[in-house]
Design goal:
3 helices, Alpha-D-Glucose-1,6-Bisphosphate, Chain A, domain 4, about 30% helix, alpha+beta, globular
């Protein structure tokens, strides 16, 4: 079957983590913990706060992603804009739901345009790695 000519509008990843909701929330909202699983940052969980995450520069990317906190609903929902380079801005949403065995982590990056298949594929790869790192950090907090 040929590959579709457009990309999905949103990337969704769900993972159940065998850790308390409050522990996962800490890892999503504390600057030093975010640096361990995502990137160096100047994040603060305050609506309207502009922050940056920083990575080593790569071809076609300075390594700096500009962001702004849009929603903070402790300890279940966090939303921020994600703007790594000109012409590419999406919204990153985290939703946490307690489960019998821990916490269901629902991640969504929305706003991909139909012509951004390569960006979508890169984001999917990157966020799968980052969420694996998040789970590793969370495990160390219990």
């Amino acid at each position: 079957m040929p590959e579709a000519t457009t990309c999905p509008r949103a990337l969704v990843i769900e993972r159940e983590m065998a850790h308390p909701l409050e522990t996962v929330w800490r890892a999503l909202t504390q600057r030093s913990l975010i640096a361990q699983w995502l990137m160096e940052n100047d994040f603060e969980p305050v609506v309207g706060r502009k922050f940056k995450v920083r990575h080593a520069p790569m071809p076609n990317w300075s390594g700096v992603t500009e962001c702004e906190v849009l929603t903070v609903e402790p300890p279940t929902r966090l939303v921020y804009s994600w703007h790594p380079f000109e012409g590419f801005e999406t919204i990153v949403s985290w939703s946490l739901t307690p489960t019998k065995n821990g916490t269901l982590v629902h991640f969504e990056q929305s706003g991909f345009r139909p012509d951004q298949k390569a960006n979508y594929r890169g984001a999917r790869y990157g966020w799968m790695q980052f969420i694996g790192g998040l789970e590793h950090v969370v495990a160390g907090l219990d």
